[in-house]
């Protein structure tokens, strides 16, 4: 086989793999159940990834009493758990936590940070929301003004998350003070 043909086939294979990976994840985002979660911002910057908002979700700290098929004190850091959610008004709230994947319902896959008798601290992979430079600056300035005025608690920072059937969450949009960020 000649070298240009082999090079072309290898390049085509790599592009196909890359396109397939992007298409797969985009299909999961588009077909996922849309839920809205309450969150609070932190303002970090990554030299390699740009401006983003680090988010701390209310559902990241869950009462241990919601764990239905295990003992919260026996959960290990990094262990997978499934948080079943139900819509309560505008937002989705946890109703139970399971070590085994639930057969039905809307649930988020989380990983245990730590756990004890009172609560379970979880990570969902939704803790970073990347923004354009202008959006990040606007959000940062608006938040600082609200904090100076003591108004930061008047409107909840909200994140729309697409939840795939396996529980993987994908942050889609961030909402604050009547403005949408993508």
β-strand number: 12
Beta fraction: 35-45%
Structural class: alpha+beta
Rg over alpha carbons: 20 Å
Shape: globular
Distance from N terminus to C terminus (CA atoms, Å) equals: 47 Å
Parts with pLDDT < 50 across at least 5 consecutive residues = none
Total helices: the number is: 2
Characterize the quaternary organization of these chains: single chain
- H-E order: HEEEEEEEEEHEEE
Q: Give helix % range.
A: 25-40%
Count of all domains: 2
Main sheet: strands, sense, barrel: 7 strands, antiparallel
Mean pLDDT: 86
Question: Summarize this, please?
Answer:
With 182 residues, the protein is an alpha+beta fold. It is built from 2 helices and 12 strands; from the N terminus they run αβββββββββαβββ. The N and C termini lie far apart (47 Å).
Structure description:
The protein has two domains: 1-31; 33-181, no CATH class. It is built from two helices and twelve strands. The protein starts with a helix and ends with a strand. The mean pLDDT is 86. Strands 1, 2, 3, 9, 10, 11 and 12 form a seven-stranded antiparallel β-sheet that branches. Strands 4-8-7-5-6 form a five-stranded antiparallel β-sheet, with no helix packed on it. 25% of the residues lie in helices and 42% in strands. With 182 residues, the protein is of the alpha+beta class.
């Amino acid at each position: 086989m000649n070298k240009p043909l082999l090079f072309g086939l290898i390049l085509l294979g790599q592009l196909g793999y890359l396109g397939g990976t992007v298409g797969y994840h985009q299909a999961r985002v588009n077909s996922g159940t849309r839920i809205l979660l309450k969150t609070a911002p932190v303002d970090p910057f990554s030299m390699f990834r740009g401006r983003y908002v680090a988010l701390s979700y209310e559902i990241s700290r869950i009462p241990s009493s919601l764990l239905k098929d295990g003992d919260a004190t026996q959960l290990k850091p990094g262990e997978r758990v499934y948080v079943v959610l139900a819509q309560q008004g505008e937002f989705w709230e946890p109703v139970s936590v399971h070590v085994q994947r639930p057969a039905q319902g809307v649930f988020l896959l989380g990983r245990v940070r730590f756990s004890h008798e009172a609560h379970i601290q979880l990570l969902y992979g939704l803790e970073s929301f990347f923004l354009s430079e202008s959006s990040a600056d606007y959000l940062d300035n608006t938040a600082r003004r609200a904090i100076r005025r003591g108004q930061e608690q008047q409107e909840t920072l909200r994140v729309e998350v697409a939840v795939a059937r396996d529980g993987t969450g994908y942050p889609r949009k961030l909402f604050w003070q009547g403005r949408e960020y993508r």
